[in-house]
Amino acid sequence: MAVVLALLSALCLAVGTQKQGSAVSDRAHGRLTPRTLAALLRNHRWLLGLGLLGLGTALNVAALGLATVTVVQPIGVVALVVTTLLHARHRRLRINRRTWAAIGLCTAGGAVFVTCAVAATDPAHGISAWAERTVVVMLVVLVCVLGVAAALFRHGLGGTFYVVAAGILYGFVAVLVRLTITRIQGSTGGPLDDVNWLAIGAAAAAAALGGWFVQIAFASGPPDLVIAGLTVIDPMVGVLLGLLVLGEAGPGFSVLTGVLMALAGGVAIVGVAVLSQHHPEVLARRAELAHRDRRAPSRPGP
Predict the structure, then answer these.
(1) Which end is more exposed in the chain, N or C (fewer Cβ atoms within 10 Å of the end residue's Cβ)?
(2) How many CA atoms lie within 13 A of 72 on its CB side?
(3) DSSP secondary-structure letter at 188?
(4) 127 — alpha (psi -120 to 50), left (phi > 0) or beta?
(5) Distance CA 159, CA 256 (A)
């Protein structure tokens, strides 16, 4: 059931991402401003995407209530393929070989990483309160650092920064959601007696900041590039937090497993990098900018 819910979540996220991404890119033209966001709040396509993203998130939370982060989160890679196909059809783009190769690297790298993670983690391991507080403190610091960086250097940061930052934030959020659900399910009193409200507050702030970063990334690149970064980085962050901070490493974890996970993660990240350089929409935007530069009148010398 957890796998079915995760697959349905991935489909909702894929369609919602494509709807929102195309709506933002049509209006933002490379830069997202508060005025543009206000206009998007009246855009039916953007609102439909928002609703689908909300439904996908709810399904993902339900899946996390039935299985661990290492099982649920990586299934989101299905959203990458679906989003790519939908966006190519919407923009009438022909997907080139390098784009398909990049998608293959993301999918293969993610699959190997997850396979190793499932074998290396112990889902029955109890999480200590100290470990949970450590994750919360790390997330609070991360939200502050990324928020300040985005505010101070917003004109110099590219779309890749926002995609990576959102993926890291969502990885933390997924872990805290899983921990909160576990606390609710294991409560001996009322369902909210053992809830860590600081963790919920930190997760909500991270989700809000990550959502804003995703909208900025939509304005500067195709939605399938955004979803590629999220589906690669999000589960990796969740798995690494589980292994290194929450102590979920089981007897199956070894040096060889760690090396394989590192190599698989590297392959997936290379796939995202290739996609960011050779996606047909990226190439089209690059050619358009070059054409504008050639047509711009040259300034006379002193």
Answers:
(1) C
(2) 27
(3) S
(4) beta
(5) 34
